[in-house]
Amino acid sequence: MAKILIVDDEPFLREMLSDILSLAGYEVIKAVNGKDGLEKIFSQKPDIVLLDCSMPEMDGYEVLTHLRKEPKFMNLPVIMLTAMSSESEEIKGFSLGLDDYITKPFKSAVLLARVRTILERKKLSVDANPLTSLAGSAAIKSEAEKRLQLGKHFALLYVDISNFKSFNDKYGFQRGDDVIKYTADCILSAIKSDCNEDDFVGHIGGDDFVMITSPKKAEELAQKFIDKFDADIYNFYDETDRRNGYIMSIDRQYNKKSFPIMTVSVAIISTEVSSLSHFADISKRAAELKSVAKRNEKSSYVFERRK
Description:
elongated; 5-stranded mixed beta sheet
């Protein structure tokens, strides 16, 4: 579980917070004042800090000010504990980079909910792909393994863009990034058109994406995405290349050759069809199936049929 630092000069409150968080499964570190708190932030590297507002010598705002000047701790989540939270205090705290306020006295359930929410948000933001803001590899693995552990059937759709590298080489990274964002938008549009409550979208990196949905909706979702992608992908090419239906670029052996307009391949792996117990199994099957889908010159999907 996450490591939480409590910075408070009141022994009773410090111990009470420690008991609440320890019982919830968190690793707890305690600091008796602001200076001690800063030292333990540097030495212990906590995942989140509960910081008392009013402390002698160095109060919570001073600690926060010092903290945000350090590049490595600029994004460290901090919750301020305060006896009297005024509007001016809150504005001051948030302007310094505070994540949340909790007013004393507080209920333990509220404290735990806020800590959990901030930690989850931090995990997602750290893992999120910077280009598309979609969940990254760690979140994708966690989501798939969680569903495997629950024994809940699902289908994972592994999406790949064919001929993306040649497009990127000819038109440059900026236009390549535009295609990646366009692909993400097509995926989100397809999944929102008739989504399940627990549908999931992730961006592994580059031109590889993942969708997780129910097995019965997987093929329909794949086709909706393909239709949306194919509808406007030509618009990313110059007029001459659109008219030709291909571009001239350099292959991996540094030979000049023609490459068709980009298409997408979707490999669909379902836990109803295959016996899967680990995310590594899913990744391996998806990679194998994607190779089959990429043999098609047009955008297509391949659904694993074997039992």
